């Protein structure tokens, strides 16, 4: 079972969490076209490698947070608050 590091509760089993999908996706404005809204709602990258996701600790503190996770190995590279910028993972 995959374990996720909640920034507030620590390392917990995956079944305590709910995935909210890709994070840091810019929402289109209210005057955006139907095509822009369709792209926002239905098209997401599905990378092989590092992916930034939002998660909620549903069976713990109930708070949302972001993680950087490798989609092949499921290794969690970073966990950070929703208001924080994504981490630099290139070693710089």
Describe the structure.
It is a single chain. The protein is mostly beta strands and 92 residues long. The protein has 1 helix and 6 strands. The strands form 2 sheets. A 4-stranded antiparallel beta sheet has the order 3-4-5-6, with no helix packed on it. A two-stranded antiparallel ribbon has the order 1-2. The termini are far apart. The model has no long low-confidence stretch (mean pLDDT 92).
List the helices and strands and how they pair.
Layout: E1 3-6, E2 10-13, E3 18-22, H1 34-42, E4 50-56, E5 64-70, E6 76-81
Antiparallel strand pairs: 1-2, 3-4, 4-5, 5-6
> How does the major sheet shape up?
4 strands, antiparallel
Radius of gyration: 15 Å
* Order of adjacent strands in the largest pleated sheet: 3-4-5-6
Domain unit count: 1
The helix/strand series, from N terminus to C terminus, equals EEEHEEE
- Structural class, from helix and strand content? mainly beta
Average pLDDT? 92
DSSP summary, beta strand count: 6
Number of helices: 1
The percentage helix is: under 10%
Strand content: 35-45%
Low-confidence stretches: none
CATH architecture assignment name: 2-Layer Sandwich
Shape: globular
Give the full name of the CATH homologous superfamily. Folate-binding superfamily
Spatial gap, N to C terminus: 31 Å
CATH topology: Folate-binding fold
CATH class: Alpha Beta
Question: Outline of this structure?
Answer:
By secondary structure, the chain is mainly β.
Which properties best describe this structure?
single chain; 92 residues; 4-stranded antiparallel β-sheet; 1 helix
């Amino acid at each position: 079972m995959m374990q996720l590091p909640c920034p507030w509760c620590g390392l917990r089993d995956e079944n305590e969490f709910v995935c909210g999908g890709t994070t840091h996706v810019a929402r289109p404005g209210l005057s955006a076209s139907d095509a822009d809204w369709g792209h926002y709602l239905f098209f997401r990258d599905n990378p092989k490698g590092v992916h930034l996701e939002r998660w909620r600790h549903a069976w713990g503190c109930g708070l949302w947070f972001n993680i950087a996770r490798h989609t092949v190995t499921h290794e969690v590279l970073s966990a950070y608050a929703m208001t924080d910028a994504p981490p630099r993972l290139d070693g710089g």
